Amino acid sequence: MTTDLATDLTSTATTAPPTRTATKDGGVSAETDARVVRRRLGPGRRIRFAFWVGPTVLLAVWVIGSKTGLISEQVLSAPWTVVESAKTQWTDQDLLGDILASLKRAVIGLALGIAAGTVLALLSGLSRVGESLIDGPIQIKRSIPTLALIPLFIAWFGIGEQMKIITIALITLIPIYIHTHNGLRSIEGKYAELAETIGLRRGEFIRQVVLPGALPGFLLGMRFAVTSSLLGLVVVEQYNATSGIGHMMTLAQNYGQTDIIVVGLVIYGAFGFLADGAVRLTERKVLAWRRTLEG
């Protein structure tokens, strides 16, 4: 019987919350409840490909503004000029090499930050001793902008790749830690009470309830971490880089080539947009049971 109750507890923590079913005495069904929530948020059906609507509108405004002269070439290069510049950088320069160099820095730094942030969050979130040792220093670091530490990192690690990757990792560590730790500490009390009632061991409770319950927080931290890694990438590539999008933009700035600078900005934006989309897609697949506001 204990095994059956543990299975029920796991199912409750990792699947959809219990839904309300329509009854003869006036009960409300889950479908009706979801429709009420959507109606309160606003009328209309779910928009297909909604993730792409905003960027498409932004691109249309850029095109129309450049075509009509509302956006001057001196202020912002036209889209077709940017496309031609990108082609030139691809054929005559090493745009592909710059993209790969930037991606390598961002991916390695992001991976290190995710790993470190997750481990620290687990140590702090699952242990009072760990929290007393870890959470305070993390909060202190949180109040100190990582970019302000770059001069110190240069003194410690030099001005090469190591400094750049460590900076990106430290920037991404914070949102992963904060949101994962919050997820670990926000498990509903009813699950803990049920675990005590059926005699579920602490290790099983952590593995079957706490960790799945913290997954939404971890994925939210991932979205912030991806954006933060690109912010760090933009800055560190201004420091003695010999390759990368930032290096390309620095050279373009020296020669007053605003169109190439815009090429770099578009690439950075595409990085962030696609990475965030990948995390959101993963979140929707993994946490499909939590979907209450979507049709």
From TrEMBL:
The ABC transmembrane type-1 domain extends over 99-279
The residue ranges crossing the membrane are 47-65, 106-123, 143-159, 165-184, 205-226, 260-281
Bias-annotated ranges (Low complexity): 1-21
Q: Which domain of life is it from?
A: Bacteria
InterPro entries listed in its UniProt record: MetI-like, MetI-like_sf
Record key words, sorted: Cell membrane, Membrane, Transmembrane, Transmembrane helix, Transport
Q: Where in the cell is it found?
A: Cell membrane
CDD domains xref list: TM_PBP2
Q: How does it sit in the membrane?
A: Multi-pass membrane protein
Query: What ranges does the record give for the region Disordered, renumbered to this chain?
Result: 1-28
The similarity comment for this entry is:
Belongs to the binding-protein-dependent transport system permease family.
User: Can you say what this protein is called?
Assistant: ABC transporter permease
Report the source organism: Nocardioides eburneus
